[in-house]
Amino acid sequence: MEIGIVGLPNVGKSTIFNALTSGTAAASNYPFTTIEPNVGVVAVPDHRLARLTELFKPKKTIPASCRFVDIAG
Predict the structure, then answer these.
(1) Bridge partners of 39?
(2) What pLDDT shows up at residue 10?
(3) Average pLDDT for residues 28-44, to the nearest whole number?
(4) Three-class SS of residue 16?
(5) Where are the domains of the chain?
(6) How far apart are CA 41 and CA 36, in angstroms?
(7) Do the beta carbons of residue 68 and residue 42 sit within 8 Å?
(8) pTM as predicted
């Protein structure tokens, strides 16, 4: 899943991005701090996946993830 964070300049997009991804993107109190998009990938924990893996023993288990993009603006 890919999620883009968009909005007007200087409204907190990078702050939200950092909170969601535990990232370190620059977040300042003036417009246009973000020039290039910041990208972060977060694994989605799911206890059911571990249980299904135990039951069915697949060759490979791939957990869900979300890709967040902090778009300049």
Answers:
(1) 69
(2) 86
(3) 86
(4) helix
(5) 2-70
(6) 17
(7) yes
(8) 0.77
